[in-house]
Design goal:
Structural class: alpha+beta
Bound molecules: coenzyme A
Order of helices and strands: EEHHHEEEHEHEEE
Length: 188
C-alpha cells in the first residue's frame, strides 16, 4: 500500500462515504453535541466548533495515517453530513472500526450501509484480514448494526477494556472475517 493514498469515496445503496471538508464543520459540531454520541464514543464532551476544526486539521493535515481513513457518512442525494466512520490499524492485516450517525439521520439503516461499505473496502483494498469492533457494553444499537453486517460478537464482556475520558470502561468485542460480510443486497 502507498503511504499517502487519498481517502476513497465509497457507496452502498443511498449512502456515500467521502473525505471531510470544511463545509462539514457546522453539522459535525451539531452531531457531536448529541448526548448519545458523548455517551457511547470518545468524542470530547462538551463539544464545540473548535473540536470539529481541530479534528479536521488532524485528519486533513496528515497527522492521522492516510491509509486508515476517516469518512463522512452522507446521503447520495445531497452529500450532506450524516455521521462519521473510521478505520484504524491494529497491526498487520487487522483494523478496528468506529462510527456514529447524527441524531437526525438515525434508524434509517445509514450506519449499517456505511459499516458495510467500510468493511468491504478494508477487505478489498486495505489488505485487511479481519475487522475488529468494540462498543461500550450496553450499546445495543451499535451491536445490532454490527450484527446486521455480519460481525460475530463475543458473549463475554471485556472488563475495563477501554479508557473513556479518564475512566476504564467495560466493552463488547466483535470480529468480522471476509466470509462473514453479508451480501450488500441483503441490506438494501
Ligand atoms: C449506533 C448508531 C451508529 C446507529 O446508527 P443508525 O443509522 O441509526 O443505525 P441503523 O439504522 O443502521 O440500525 C440501527 C438498528 O438498531 C436497532 N435499534 C434501535 N434502537 C435500539 C435499541 N434501543 N436496542 C436495540 N436495537 C435498537 C434498529 O431497530 C436497527 O435495527 P433493525 O434494522 O434490525 O431494525 C447511532 O445510534 C449512533 O450514532 N449512536 C451514538 C454513537 C454510537 O453509539 N456509536 C457507536 C459506537 S460503538
Amino acid at each position: 500500500m502507498s503511504e499517502t493514498r487519498e481517502t476513497p469515496v465509497l457507496r452502498a445503496g443511498h449512502v456515500v462515504l467521502r473525505p471531510h471538508t470544511s463545509d462539514d464543520i457546522d453539522l459535525m459540531t451539531r452531531a457531536c453535541q448529541d448526548p448519545e454520541i458523548a455517551r457511547w464514543t470518545m468524542v470530547p464532551d462538551p463539544y464545540d466548533e473548535t473540536h470539529a476544526r481541530a479534528y479536521l486539521d488532524r485528519i486533513t493535515g496528515g497527522a492521522v495515517d492516510a491509509e486508515f481513513p476517516r469518512w463522512v457518512i452522507c446521503s447520495a442525494d445531497d452529500n450532506s453530513y450524516m455521521g462519521g466512520m473510521g478505520l484504524v490499524a491494529r497491526g498487520v492485516g487487522s483494523m478496528k472500526v468506529g462510527y456514529f450517525v447524527a441524531p437526525w439521520a438515525r434508524d434509517r439503516g445509514i450506519a449499517t450501509l456505511a459499516l458495510w461499505a467500510a468493511c468491504d473496502w478494508a477487505f478489498r483494498e486495505g489488505e485487511c484480514e479481519v475487522v475488529h469492533w468494540d462498543a461500550l457494553s450496553g450499546n445495543d444499537r451499535s451491536r445490532r448494526v454490527a450484527e446486521k453486517v455480519g460481525f460475530q460478537i463475543k458473549t463475554d464482556v471485556m472488563r475495563k477494556w477501554v479508557e473513556v475520558r479518564g475512566q476504564l470502561t467495560d466493552s463488547w468485542l466483535g470480529d468480522l472475517l471476509p466470509e462473514d460480510l453479508v451480501p450488500l443486497k441483503s441490506l438494501l
